[in-house]
Amino acid sequence: MANYPLEGLLRPPVEYWSMSVSIGAAGICLLSPSTLMMTPSVGYTSATVLTAFAVYRFIQGTRVTRYQRNLKRLPRFEMSSRRIPCYRKHLYLGQGFRWGQHHTQRLKDTMAPAFAKYTRPSRINAWFREFERRMEHTRLGFLAELTSKDHPLNPVRPYPAVGGNPAIHAVELNEKEVLLAMSERVGHTLCMGTTRVGKSRLAEILIEQDIRRNEGPVIVFDPKSDPGLLTRMYMAAKRTGRTDDFYMFHLGFPEISARYNAIGNFSRITEIAGRISGQLSSEGNSAAFKEFAWRFINIVARALVSLGMRPDYNNILRYVTDIEPLFNQYLDWWLPMNGDEGWMEDINAMTADAERQYRSNPRMAKHANPRTEALRKYVEQMQVSDPILHGLLSALRYDKTYFDKLVASLLPLLEKLTTGRIGKLLAPDYFDVDDDRPIFDWTQIIRKRGIVYIGLDAMTDTEISSAVGNSMFSDLVSVCGSIYKHGFEHGMLEGKANVMPKVCLHADEFNELMGDEFLPMVNKSGGSGMQITAYTQSRGDIEARLGNTAKARQVEGNFNNLIMLRVKEKETAELLTNQLPEVEIAQIMTVSGASDSSDTESSVDFTSNTQDRISMLRVPMLEPGHITSLPKGQAFCLLDGGQLWKVRFPLPVEDDEDMPENLQALTREMDKNYHTAENWWA
Questions:
Q1: pLDDT > 90? residue 515
Q2: Distance of CA 209 to the CA centre of its chain
Q3: pTM over 0.70
Q4: Is residue 575 within 8 Å of residue 553, measured between CB atoms?
């Protein structure tokens, strides 16, 4: 069939007829060769040849029937986590095939009205579905339950609830493992698909392999907090003996979560202000307030670092609200090194003078604390050139009412990040020996090849989750910059220079976490060993988050590998289809006609003619409508420089391993509160 322009797979399996005839003739040759005037030896030889021909025709017929059966129902494909293949040089995606011109041809043939019976449910199956709906609440309901069971022995079982068009994957009978070369992962991978079509299952498959490969840290951002993902990550860590390297950070359950200081580690001190002020709006007049907030946070951060204090959200909020204590503390540290010998007596005298002025005329006081006023006057008289001190002085001169207006957008954000148990989670006390929750930072995670699950609880408080996620991304970008310059073993005893790690970063619903700091991450982090796999629903989500079409296209252009599940927007589907070439397919055109005879003496009154003409038509290899009609758990993939693959992911099988009691309680609570883990494949 492959030698002809049209394969003709959508037809009755006529191969079985010739197979039956061959088997019958072989039986006659074997049992009674004389009937066909053959000697026994000739009969036995003929029987052997006919049997071989019958087997050949049976294989051909089976191919046709299997092809037609798959057009309606694909064989179930499931796999437990421990059975997922794991290769050193390749990443397993699922089972599928390389898409070519003949697959486009076959898919086009299935859409012809003449072949509708091969793709649509049979009348018997439709009748039983109607029977089940009618008998659901009657005494015959047990019969409806029997006919609705998805079991191979049920001849009228319902079709899988995966939707879409199963013929898209059924156009190829010979599936094989779809693999992505590990050398291509540094080019980053973008996975797109609408809700409940299998993105989380794909993430589980990829994360499972990254953990088992144990070539570097695995970091997973999960804004929606999927308990199934957390469970499978821990199971993978347990099977590989890496439970000691497993960290669980969850904003929704801070009592058992690991702790993390989003602004406590930095390469440049200006990063602190950038991570916090980056969460503020920069549209319209808000841009000026954002710049002021950045400057003020930077002043506080520089002073804290000079005093040997680790910045955190609590310290920033404390001193943004009231700068006086930080000003006094900084001068108590600075003056013994830079002041005159009698600076203490001068300060005491000026303090006493300020107290007398406050008592005589309180309106003259600019500050509630006379010592602060004395320190300010003393420093102004010295005419020092310390930039940190100058920044503190300028912040101190602001009128309180005017200052509150300038930081009006900053204070609510900081208060959200420091309120309640979340505040202790994001501003950990490093000296609290009674708190056994671990504290981690990205440099530590990268060096020990840790496994980190980050549940941001975005459905509860989107703003906090976004702020924490963006701060973590910014911290990662900073660490990647340091690794790019020095290697991740820089500063270690006997550490090697310029050694790059393999950091596997998975960001589910990354559009909710993305800010301007994500652009340099996808642009430049590949050189530092960062392998980003991002999951989102549509192109519009990226554009809406960044607020700029050019930036959205910039992000998309930096993902070399594209995995496209079912999407509902044509523009999103065109992100893949516009990168594919056009192909030629065969099209049958039926031509018929009749002509009258002009010869009055002829017995022929007219002649008729009917022809089937095959013409070649140039069409896109894939159309957006094919992507919008994909079944759940299936995807098109552009891998290895634009190679198009059709893949389906294995359905999960529950593992029988146990989790610690605290994580079991956590996953039960997540199942109760988060309704994101429905089994769409059931």
A1: no
A2: 15
A3: yes
A4: no
